[in-house]
Structure formats: structure tokens, C-alpha cells
Design goal:
The longest helix has 14 residues. This protein has 271 residues and is of the alpha/beta class. Helix 2 runs parallel beside helix 4.
């Protein structure tokens, strides 16, 4: 069996250390838990999409926990799909910054009974190269169960969702991904909410952020708005268990009330 600590959305920056105190408490809890492996599911940095310093600082802070770890990029680390029209589109230069400081965005990590496949949900449309890694990983999984490790959730509600927005993997790359193979488990971050459920036959775990939530005025509460980290135990027989760890003393920052970080948020209509 393998014990995994999933941490997500730390949003760290040496220049703007707003979420550093929360991360320090989570880091201490993860260190004390002595997991076999730590997975960081994106947005490690506050603005790695434009800052080498933020991304290097975030990498060093995660590495300092002192356990074996792997990471996938989030939109604040590498930008986001150009199709979404944001101010930091994913491009080759942003992808190269991540690769240079963190290693490949898409990767395979085999453990007894399971194959972990990391991928970059911000460039599934824009970066054809990672599909070679993903396709080979799913095709050659053999009897292993597949756990996808990614920043954005596979879907908000069901795999048939057609919504195109900032939160989930977009419908077209979702369909392409599922056509390659069916994961048993998907570990994601990005929404800054905790939710653990099986939908469409796939266990889909949303890890909360270590640093902040997005208040209900700006984001529908489709999960629990809290902070912490998540423990997964993967057994060699293909079963697994997931457990949330809240950490005492974390400050429940609401990014909607901190416009100096990412600018003002747009309130939900009618909210
Ligand atoms: Fe985030
Ligand atoms: Fe994100």
C-alpha cells in the first residue's frame, strides 16, 4: 500500500507571502504524517505564469517538506487555455518555464497496483506533445488501475457536461482523454473546495487549497469551502481510501476579499 498526501493550490510567492503562514502549517502536518509520496495538484505559485521567482520559490517550499513529491501545473503556474480568453494564455514559453524549473508537465509514476498519470489541464488543446505521454500511459497501463493527477476537475457534475468555463476540463479534451482509457480515480484542485464522490463510475476527489477559498458571492458552493490537505491510501489490489485533513489554525482567506492579489472578482449574477 502507498500513502499519498495531496496538497493543492498553495499560491506561494516570496514577494507576496499572503498564503505562506497557512502553507507552513499544512507543510508541518504533512511532514508529521510521513507519507510515501506527496502530490501537488497545481497553482503551487501565486504567479508562476509570469514569474520565475514565484515558481522557483513555490517549488522550494514544497520540496522543503522533505518527502518524495511530484507536481502538475495549474493555471497560475503556466497560464490557461487560450480558448478561455484569460489574460495569461498558455504558450510555449510558459510551458518551458514550468519544464525548466519543475520537469515535464505530463508524467507517469507507477506504484503497486496503480499507475499515476500527471497531466496539464491548461494546455490539452494547445500542447499536442503531452498527448503522446498521456496516450502511451493509458494504453500501456495493463492491469494497473489509473489515477489521473491534474489541476482542473474532470467535470463539475457529469462527464456529459457541455459547459465551457474556467473551472473544469473543457468538453472536447475531456472526451478525447476518456476515449483513451477510463481512470478509476481523478485527483484535482483548482476549485478551492473539498468534494469526494464517485460519479460516472469514477472516483473524483477535489482537494481543497492550503491557502484560500473563493467566497459564495463569486463561486457556487458545489463543494465544501475549507482549507487543508488530503490523504489517499492506494492498495495493491486496486482499492483506495481518501480522507480529508483539516489543520488547526489555518486562516480562511477569501480571495474575493483580497483584490490586490488577482484583481476584483466578478460577482455571480443574482448573488
Ligand atoms: Fe488555485
Ligand atoms: Fe487554478
Amino acid at each position: 500500500m502507498l500513502r499519498i498526501a495531496q496538497v493543492s493550490d498553495a499560491h506561494l510567492s516570496a514577494a507576496r507571502p499572503v498564503f505562506a503562514a497557512n502553507f507552513a502549517r499544512v507543510a508541518e502536518a504533512v511532514r508529521a504524517a510521513r507519507p510515501d509520496l506527496m502530490l501537488a495538484t497545481g497553482d503551487l505559485s501565486l504567479d508562476g505564469a509570469d514569474s520565475d521567482e514565484d515558481l522557483a520559490h513555490a517549488r522550494d517550499a514544497h520540496a522543503a517538506i522533505g518527502v518524495e513529491w511530484r507536481a502538475v501545473p495549474g493555471n497560475h503556474d503556466v497560464g490557461d487555455e487560450a480558448a478561455l480568453g484569460g489574460r495569461q494564455p498558455w504558450n510555449a514559453a510558459r510551458g518551458a518555464r514550468w519544464a525548466g524549473l519543475m520537469g515535464p508537465a505530463a508524467w507517469v509514476h507507477d506504484v503497486p497496483g496503480w499507475r499515476l498519470v500527471g497531466l496539464d489541464t491548461q494546455s490539452l488543446i494547445s500542447d499536442e506533445a503531452q498527448w503522446e505521454v498521456i496516450a502511451r500511459a493509458l494504453r500501456d497501463a495493463g492491469p494497473r488501475r489509473v489515477a489521473l493527477v491534474q489541476h482542473k476537475p474532470l467535470a463539475e457534475e457529469t462527464l456529459a457536461d457541455t459547459a465551457v468555463n474556467y473551472w473544469p476540463v473543457l468538453p472536447a479534451p475531456r472526451a478525447r482523454l476518456l476515449a483513451l482509457g477510463r481512470p478509476a480515480l481523478v485527483l484535482s484542485g483548482h476549485v478551492h473546495m473539498w468534494r469526494d464522490r464517485v460519479a460516472d463510475g469514477i472516483a473524483q476527489c477535489w482537494a481543497p487549497s492550503t491557502g484560500f477559498i473563493v467566497g459564495d458571492r463569486w463561486q457556487e458552493p458545489t463543494g465544501a469551502k475549507l482549507l487543508g490537505w488530503v490523504e489517499h491510501v492506494l492498495h495493491a489490489d486496486g482499492t483506495h481510501e481518501t480522507r480529508l485533513h483539516e489543520v488547526p489554525g489555518l486562516q480562511l482567506h477569501d480571495i474575493g476579499l483580497l483584490p490586490e492579489i488577482y484583481g476584483p472578482m466578478t460577482p455571480l449574477t443574482g448573488g
